[in-house]
Amino acid sequence: MKRAVIAPPATLALLGGGQLGRFFIQAAHELGYRVIVLDPDPDAPAGKLADGHIVANYDNQAALSQLTQQCAAATTEFENVPAAVLAQLAQTMPVSPSAEAVSIAQDRIREKNFLKDHGFSTAPFIAVENEADLDNASDHLFPAILKTARFGYDGKGQARVNSIDEAKAAQRDFNTPCVLEKMMPLNLEVSVVLARSADGECRCFPLAENGHRNGVLDITIVPARTTLALQQQAEEIASELASQLDYIGVLTVEFFISDGQLLINEIAPRPHNSGHYTIDSNITSQYEQQLRALCHLPLGSAQSHSSSVMVNLLGDLWYPLGTHHSIEPEWTVLHKIPNLKLHLYGKTVPRQGRKMGHFTILDDDIDTAITTAMAARKAIGILDSSEKIIP
Ligand code: ADP
Ligand code: MG
Prior knowledge:
Shape: globular
Radius of gyration: 21 Å
Oligomer: single chain
Distance between the termini: 44 Å
Helix content: 25-40%
Bound molecules: adenosine-5'-diphosphate, magnesium ion
Largest sheet: 9 strands, antiparallel
Mean pLDDT: 95
Protein backbone atom coordinates (compact mmCIF):
# COMPACT_ATOMS: atom_id res chain seq x y z
CA MET A 1 0.00 0.00 0.00
CA LYS A 2 1.35 3.45 -0.93
CA ARG A 3 1.40 5.81 2.03
CA ALA A 4 1.87 9.55 2.24
CA VAL A 5 5.47 10.70 2.48
CA ILE A 6 6.42 12.27 5.80
CA ALA A 7 8.59 15.17 4.70
CA PRO A 8 11.20 17.18 6.59
CA PRO A 9 11.26 19.15 8.84
CA ALA A 10 8.83 16.70 10.49
CA THR A 11 9.62 15.59 14.03
CA LEU A 12 9.96 11.85 14.62
CA ALA A 13 9.60 9.94 17.88
CA LEU A 14 12.34 7.49 18.83
CA LEU A 15 11.77 5.00 21.63
CA GLY A 16 15.10 4.11 23.22
CA GLY A 17 18.20 6.24 23.47
CA GLY A 18 21.16 3.90 22.99
CA GLN A 19 23.84 4.04 20.31
CA LEU A 20 21.53 2.60 17.66
CA GLY A 21 19.23 5.55 18.31
CA ARG A 22 22.14 7.96 18.24
CA PHE A 23 23.04 6.80 14.73
CA PHE A 24 19.38 7.00 13.68
CA ILE A 25 19.29 10.65 14.79
CA GLN A 26 22.41 11.43 12.76
CA ALA A 27 20.76 9.91 9.66
CA ALA A 28 17.52 11.79 10.34
CA HIS A 29 19.34 15.11 10.81
CA GLU A 30 21.22 14.50 7.57
CA LEU A 31 17.88 14.44 5.74
CA GLY A 32 16.41 17.40 7.60
CA TYR A 33 14.20 15.71 10.22
CA ARG A 34 13.98 16.37 13.93
CA VAL A 35 13.89 13.61 16.54
CA ILE A 36 12.49 13.43 20.06
CA VAL A 37 13.85 10.56 22.16
CA LEU A 38 11.94 8.84 24.93
CA ASP A 39 14.29 7.04 27.33
CA PRO A 40 14.26 6.90 31.14
CA ASP A 41 18.05 7.31 31.31
CA PRO A 42 19.00 11.01 31.47
CA ASP A 43 22.48 10.05 30.24
CA ALA A 44 21.28 8.08 27.18
CA PRO A 45 23.74 8.51 24.26
CA ALA A 46 20.98 9.43 21.78
CA GLY A 47 19.50 11.99 24.16
CA LYS A 48 22.58 14.15 23.73
CA LEU A 49 22.01 14.56 19.98
CA ALA A 50 18.22 14.63 19.97
CA ASP A 51 16.09 17.73 19.41
CA GLY A 52 14.30 16.75 22.59
CA HIS A 53 14.79 14.05 25.20
CA ILE A 54 11.84 13.06 27.37
CA VAL A 55 13.30 11.37 30.43
CA ALA A 56 10.48 9.04 31.44
CA ASN A 57 9.44 5.41 31.33
CA TYR A 58 8.18 4.09 28.00
CA ASP A 59 4.62 3.76 29.27
CA ASN A 60 4.47 7.22 30.87
CA GLN A 61 1.17 8.65 29.59
CA ALA A 62 2.24 12.31 29.77
CA ALA A 63 5.33 11.45 27.72
CA LEU A 64 3.28 9.53 25.15
CA SER A 65 0.79 12.36 24.76
CA GLN A 66 3.67 14.79 24.20
CA LEU A 67 4.99 12.50 21.44
CA THR A 68 1.50 12.26 19.96
CA GLN A 69 1.22 16.05 19.81
CA GLN A 70 4.69 16.76 18.47
CA CYS A 71 5.63 13.84 16.23
CA ALA A 72 4.59 12.71 12.75
CA ALA A 73 5.81 9.09 13.08
CA ALA A 74 7.49 6.81 15.60
CA THR A 75 10.16 4.12 15.58
CA THR A 76 12.20 2.18 18.10
CA GLU A 77 15.84 1.21 18.56
CA PHE A 78 15.15 -1.07 21.52
CA GLU A 79 13.19 -4.32 21.21
CA ASN A 80 12.11 -4.33 24.84
CA VAL A 81 9.90 -1.28 24.60
CA PRO A 82 6.39 -2.44 25.62
CA ALA A 83 4.54 -3.48 22.45
CA ALA A 84 1.38 -1.86 23.89
CA VAL A 85 3.12 1.52 23.71
CA LEU A 86 3.80 1.08 19.99
CA ALA A 87 0.16 0.04 19.50
CA GLN A 88 -1.01 3.15 21.36
CA LEU A 89 1.15 5.50 19.27
CA ALA A 90 -0.04 3.72 16.10
CA GLN A 91 -3.56 5.02 16.75
CA THR A 92 -2.43 8.51 15.81
CA MET A 93 0.69 8.16 13.63
CA PRO A 94 2.62 5.69 11.46
CA VAL A 95 4.75 3.42 13.66
CA SER A 96 7.36 1.05 12.31
CA PRO A 97 8.26 -1.60 13.17
CA SER A 98 4.75 -2.62 14.25
CA ALA A 99 3.74 -3.56 17.78
CA GLU A 100 3.00 -7.07 16.55
CA ALA A 101 6.44 -7.62 14.98
CA VAL A 102 8.19 -6.22 18.05
CA SER A 103 6.12 -8.35 20.41
CA ILE A 104 7.18 -11.48 18.51
CA ALA A 105 10.86 -10.50 18.44
CA GLN A 106 11.00 -9.56 22.13
CA ASP A 107 9.84 -12.95 23.35
CA ARG A 108 11.97 -15.96 22.40
CA ILE A 109 9.06 -18.37 22.87
CA ARG A 110 6.81 -16.44 20.46
CA GLU A 111 9.75 -15.83 18.11
CA LYS A 112 10.78 -19.51 17.94
CA ASN A 113 7.17 -20.68 17.58
CA PHE A 114 6.56 -18.15 14.81
CA LEU A 115 9.64 -19.41 12.97
CA LYS A 116 8.61 -23.06 13.41
CA ASP A 117 4.98 -22.44 12.41
CA HIS A 118 6.08 -20.64 9.25
CA GLY A 119 8.52 -23.36 8.20
CA PHE A 120 11.84 -21.65 9.00
CA SER A 121 14.70 -23.87 10.26
CA THR A 122 16.03 -23.28 13.77
CA ALA A 123 18.03 -25.31 16.28
CA PRO A 124 15.75 -27.89 17.96
CA PHE A 125 14.09 -26.29 21.00
CA ILE A 126 11.28 -26.55 23.52
CA ALA A 127 9.43 -23.78 25.33
CA VAL A 128 9.91 -23.91 29.11
CA GLU A 129 7.14 -21.99 30.88
CA ASN A 130 7.94 -23.76 34.16
CA GLU A 131 10.13 -26.51 35.58
CA ALA A 132 7.63 -29.27 34.78
CA ASP A 133 8.01 -28.56 31.04
CA LEU A 134 11.53 -29.98 31.35
CA ASP A 135 10.38 -33.38 32.60
CA ASN A 136 9.91 -34.74 29.10
CA ALA A 137 12.79 -32.94 27.39
CA SER A 138 14.28 -35.43 24.99
CA ASP A 139 17.91 -36.51 25.37
CA HIS A 140 18.79 -35.38 21.88
CA LEU A 141 18.45 -31.70 23.02
CA PHE A 142 21.55 -32.00 25.24
CA PRO A 143 24.06 -30.42 25.57
CA ALA A 144 21.74 -27.45 25.46
CA ILE A 145 21.46 -23.80 26.27
CA LEU A 146 18.65 -22.41 28.40
CA LYS A 147 17.73 -18.85 27.42
CA THR A 148 15.30 -16.56 29.20
CA ALA A 149 12.38 -15.76 26.90
CA ARG A 150 12.66 -12.04 27.57
CA PHE A 151 15.28 -9.35 28.17
CA GLY A 152 18.38 -11.38 27.23
CA TYR A 153 21.15 -9.65 25.30
CA ASP A 154 24.89 -10.00 24.74
CA GLY A 155 24.76 -13.58 26.07
CA LYS A 156 23.02 -12.53 29.31
CA GLY A 157 20.15 -14.68 30.58
CA GLN A 158 21.71 -17.86 29.19
CA ALA A 159 23.03 -21.03 30.81
CA ARG A 160 24.73 -24.03 29.23
CA VAL A 161 23.24 -27.24 30.57
CA ASN A 162 24.08 -30.92 30.04
CA SER A 163 21.07 -32.69 31.53
CA ILE A 164 17.45 -32.25 32.56
CA ASP A 165 18.58 -31.78 36.18
CA GLU A 166 21.00 -29.01 35.22
CA ALA A 167 18.32 -27.40 33.07
CA LYS A 168 15.88 -27.49 35.98
CA ALA A 169 18.42 -25.90 38.31
CA ALA A 170 19.07 -23.13 35.76
CA GLN A 171 15.33 -22.61 35.24
CA ARG A 172 14.82 -22.27 39.01
CA ASP A 173 17.61 -19.70 39.05
CA PHE A 174 16.12 -17.65 36.21
CA ASN A 175 12.59 -18.12 37.60
CA THR A 176 11.01 -16.90 34.36
CA PRO A 177 9.83 -18.54 31.10
CA CYS A 178 12.71 -19.79 28.95
CA VAL A 179 13.52 -21.76 25.83
CA LEU A 180 15.76 -24.80 25.92
CA GLU A 181 17.75 -25.05 22.74
CA LYS A 182 20.15 -27.69 21.47
CA MET A 183 23.77 -26.50 21.31
CA MET A 184 24.66 -26.64 17.63
CA PRO A 185 28.12 -27.13 16.14
CA LEU A 186 28.77 -23.81 14.40
CA ASN A 187 30.72 -23.39 11.17
CA LEU A 188 30.01 -19.68 11.20
CA GLU A 189 27.55 -17.07 12.46
CA VAL A 190 26.17 -14.63 9.91
CA SER A 191 23.44 -12.00 9.83
CA VAL A 192 21.26 -10.32 7.25
CA VAL A 193 20.19 -6.75 7.95
CA LEU A 194 17.39 -5.72 5.61
CA ALA A 195 14.93 -2.93 5.10
CA ARG A 196 11.35 -3.45 3.98
CA SER A 197 9.09 -0.62 2.93
CA ALA A 198 5.36 -0.17 3.45
CA ASP A 199 4.77 -1.23 -0.15
CA GLY A 200 6.65 -4.49 0.38
CA GLU A 201 9.93 -3.64 -1.31
CA CYS A 202 12.83 -5.41 0.43
CA ARG A 203 16.56 -4.60 0.26
CA CYS A 204 19.18 -6.74 2.00
CA PHE A 205 22.57 -5.44 3.02
CA PRO A 206 25.47 -7.77 2.15
CA LEU A 207 25.80 -10.81 4.41
CA ALA A 208 27.80 -10.12 7.57
CA GLU A 209 30.03 -12.71 9.28
CA ASN A 210 30.07 -12.33 13.04
CA GLY A 211 32.65 -13.36 15.63
CA HIS A 212 31.68 -13.28 19.33
CA ARG A 213 33.75 -13.21 22.52
CA ASN A 214 32.18 -13.99 25.87
CA GLY A 215 28.73 -13.86 24.23
CA VAL A 216 29.25 -10.31 22.89
CA LEU A 217 29.71 -9.41 19.23
CA ASP A 218 33.42 -8.74 18.73
CA ILE A 219 33.99 -8.45 14.99
CA THR A 220 31.94 -8.30 11.78
CA ILE A 221 33.47 -9.17 8.42
CA VAL A 222 31.69 -8.15 5.21
CA PRO A 223 31.24 -9.83 2.84
CA ALA A 224 30.94 -13.01 4.90
CA ARG A 225 33.40 -15.68 3.85
CA THR A 226 30.80 -18.16 2.67
CA THR A 227 29.70 -19.45 -0.71
CA LEU A 228 27.63 -17.22 -2.95
CA ALA A 229 24.87 -19.84 -2.74
CA LEU A 230 24.68 -19.52 1.06
CA GLN A 231 24.73 -15.72 0.84
CA GLN A 232 21.81 -15.77 -1.57
CA GLN A 233 19.93 -18.34 0.47
CA ALA A 234 20.33 -16.27 3.66
CA GLU A 235 18.94 -13.22 1.85
CA GLU A 236 16.00 -15.20 0.51
CA ILE A 237 15.15 -16.63 3.93
CA ALA A 238 15.45 -13.22 5.64
CA SER A 239 13.29 -11.53 2.98
CA GLU A 240 10.66 -14.24 3.20
CA LEU A 241 10.59 -13.89 6.99
CA ALA A 242 10.18 -10.09 6.73
CA SER A 243 7.30 -10.64 4.36
CA GLN A 244 5.64 -13.24 6.66
CA LEU A 245 5.93 -10.72 9.50
CA ASP A 246 4.42 -7.95 7.29
CA TYR A 247 7.47 -6.08 8.44
CA ILE A 248 8.07 -2.39 7.81
CA GLY A 249 11.47 -0.99 8.82
CA VAL A 250 14.90 -2.49 9.43
CA LEU A 251 15.00 -6.13 10.49
CA THR A 252 18.03 -8.22 11.46
CA VAL A 253 18.08 -11.98 11.08
CA GLU A 254 20.91 -13.80 12.89
CA PHE A 255 21.82 -17.19 11.46
CA PHE A 256 23.94 -20.12 12.50
CA ILE A 257 25.65 -22.06 9.75
CA SER A 258 25.68 -25.55 11.18
CA ASP A 259 26.76 -28.56 9.09
CA GLY A 260 26.54 -26.28 6.08
CA GLN A 261 22.86 -25.48 6.78
CA LEU A 262 21.38 -22.08 7.62
CA LEU A 263 19.42 -22.03 10.87
CA ILE A 264 17.77 -18.88 12.17
CA ASN A 265 19.12 -18.06 15.64
CA GLU A 266 17.11 -14.94 16.48
CA ILE A 267 15.74 -11.75 14.99
CA ALA A 268 16.00 -8.12 16.06
CA PRO A 269 13.28 -5.64 15.01
CA ARG A 270 15.78 -2.82 14.47
CA PRO A 271 19.19 -1.92 13.11
CA HIS A 272 21.91 -4.11 14.58
CA ASN A 273 25.48 -3.99 15.80
CA SER A 274 26.42 -6.27 12.90
CA GLY A 275 25.09 -3.59 10.51
CA HIS A 276 27.28 -0.76 11.86
CA TYR A 277 29.60 -1.30 8.92
CA THR A 278 26.91 0.14 6.61
CA ILE A 279 27.55 3.64 8.04
CA ASP A 280 30.95 3.78 6.38
CA SER A 281 30.93 1.24 3.58
CA ASN A 282 27.46 1.41 2.04
CA ILE A 283 25.62 3.83 -0.19
CA THR A 284 22.76 3.89 2.34
CA SER A 285 23.30 2.99 6.00
CA GLN A 286 20.95 0.78 8.00
CA TYR A 287 19.89 3.90 9.90
CA GLU A 288 19.02 5.87 6.79
CA GLN A 289 16.99 2.85 5.60
CA GLN A 290 15.13 2.85 8.93
CA LEU A 291 14.31 6.51 8.39
CA ARG A 292 13.30 5.95 4.75
CA ALA A 293 10.99 3.07 5.62
CA LEU A 294 9.45 5.05 8.49
CA CYS A 295 8.82 8.18 6.41
CA HIS A 296 7.61 6.23 3.32
CA LEU A 297 10.54 7.40 1.20
CA PRO A 298 11.90 5.04 -1.45
CA LEU A 299 14.58 2.73 0.01
CA GLY A 300 18.18 3.58 -0.88
CA SER A 301 20.73 1.24 -2.43
CA ALA A 302 22.03 -1.28 0.11
CA GLN A 303 25.23 -1.90 -1.86
CA SER A 304 28.68 -1.75 -0.27
CA HIS A 305 31.35 0.33 -1.97
CA SER A 306 34.15 -1.61 -0.25
CA SER A 307 34.78 -4.59 1.96
CA SER A 308 34.80 -3.86 5.67
CA VAL A 309 35.70 -5.17 9.08
CA MET A 310 33.96 -3.72 12.14
CA VAL A 311 35.49 -4.13 15.60
CA ASN A 312 33.56 -3.36 18.80
CA LEU A 313 35.22 -1.31 21.54
CA LEU A 314 34.06 -2.45 24.97
CA GLY A 315 34.47 -0.71 28.31
CA ASP A 316 37.24 -3.19 29.21
CA LEU A 317 39.56 -1.09 27.06
CA TRP A 318 39.31 1.77 29.57
CA TYR A 319 40.90 -0.45 32.25
CA PRO A 320 44.32 -1.58 31.04
CA LEU A 321 45.78 -4.37 33.17
CA GLY A 322 46.24 -3.35 36.76
CA THR A 323 44.12 -0.17 36.76
CA HIS A 324 40.98 0.27 38.83
CA HIS A 325 40.07 3.73 37.60
CA SER A 326 39.20 4.28 33.97
CA ILE A 327 41.73 5.77 31.55
CA GLU A 328 40.73 7.14 28.13
CA PRO A 329 42.37 4.93 25.48
CA GLU A 330 45.05 6.49 23.27
CA TRP A 331 42.90 7.04 20.18
CA THR A 332 45.73 8.49 18.08
CA VAL A 333 46.95 4.95 17.36
CA LEU A 334 43.65 4.44 15.54
CA HIS A 335 43.52 7.92 13.95
CA LYS A 336 46.86 7.13 12.32
CA ILE A 337 45.32 4.32 10.24
CA PRO A 338 44.01 6.10 7.14
CA ASN A 339 41.29 3.61 6.19
CA LEU A 340 39.89 3.33 9.72
CA LYS A 341 36.67 5.08 10.78
CA LEU A 342 36.25 5.49 14.54
CA HIS A 343 32.87 5.95 16.25
CA LEU A 344 32.53 6.67 19.98
CA TYR A 345 29.07 6.74 21.51
CA GLY A 346 29.57 9.48 24.11
CA LYS A 347 28.84 7.15 27.06
CA THR A 348 30.19 8.74 30.21
CA VAL A 349 30.70 5.59 32.27
CA PRO A 350 32.87 2.83 30.78
CA ARG A 351 31.98 -0.54 32.27
CA GLN A 352 33.46 -3.97 31.54
CA GLY A 353 31.55 -5.48 28.63
CA ARG A 354 29.69 -2.24 27.80
CA LYS A 355 29.66 -1.22 24.14
CA MET A 356 31.42 2.16 24.10
CA GLY A 357 32.24 2.52 20.40
CA HIS A 358 33.46 0.69 17.32
CA PHE A 359 35.75 1.15 14.37
CA THR A 360 35.44 0.02 10.78
CA ILE A 361 38.30 -0.74 8.41
CA LEU A 362 37.48 -0.17 4.73
CA ASP A 363 39.50 -1.86 2.02
CA ASP A 364 38.92 -3.18 -1.48
CA ASP A 365 40.44 -6.47 -0.40
CA ILE A 366 38.76 -8.33 2.47
CA ASP A 367 41.92 -10.16 3.57
CA THR A 368 43.85 -6.88 3.80
CA ALA A 369 40.95 -5.37 5.76
CA ILE A 370 41.08 -8.28 8.23
CA THR A 371 44.86 -7.98 8.67
CA THR A 372 44.60 -4.22 9.23
CA ALA A 373 41.71 -4.66 11.69
CA MET A 374 43.58 -7.26 13.73
CA ALA A 375 46.65 -5.02 13.90
CA ALA A 376 44.51 -2.01 14.90
CA ARG A 377 42.81 -4.06 17.57
CA LYS A 378 46.15 -5.06 19.04
CA ALA A 379 47.52 -1.50 18.80
CA ILE A 380 44.64 -0.06 20.84
CA GLY A 381 45.12 -2.79 23.45
CA ILE A 382 42.31 -5.28 22.93
CA LEU A 383 43.56 -8.37 24.71
CA ASP A 384 43.23 -11.75 23.14
CA SER A 385 41.28 -14.26 25.16
CA SER A 386 41.49 -18.03 25.04
CA GLU A 387 38.18 -18.01 23.16
CA LYS A 388 38.30 -18.57 19.44
CA ILE A 389 38.48 -15.29 17.59
CA ILE A 390 37.85 -14.93 13.90
CA PRO A 391 39.97 -15.37 11.87
P1 ADP B 1 21.80 -12.70 22.49
O1 ADP B 1 20.41 -12.17 22.65
O2 ADP B 1 22.62 -12.58 23.72
O3 ADP B 1 22.47 -12.23 21.22
P2 ADP B 1 21.84 -15.34 21.22
O4 ADP B 1 20.72 -16.32 21.28
O5 ADP B 1 22.12 -14.72 19.90
O6 ADP B 1 21.56 -14.28 22.35
O7 ADP B 1 23.14 -16.08 21.77
C1 ADP B 1 24.39 -15.43 21.87
C2 ADP B 1 25.49 -16.30 21.25
O8 ADP B 1 25.57 -17.57 21.92
C3 ADP B 1 25.24 -16.65 19.80
O9 ADP B 1 25.64 -15.61 18.94
C4 ADP B 1 26.07 -17.93 19.66
O10 ADP B 1 27.46 -17.61 19.55
C5 ADP B 1 25.86 -18.61 20.99
N1 ADP B 1 24.70 -19.53 20.89
C6 ADP B 1 23.43 -19.22 21.20
N2 ADP B 1 22.60 -20.26 20.96
C7 ADP B 1 23.36 -21.27 20.51
C8 ADP B 1 23.10 -22.62 20.08
N3 ADP B 1 21.88 -23.15 20.11
N4 ADP B 1 24.16 -23.37 19.65
C9 ADP B 1 25.41 -22.86 19.62
N5 ADP B 1 25.72 -21.59 20.01
C10 ADP B 1 24.72 -20.80 20.46
MG1 MG C 1 22.21 -12.73 19.29
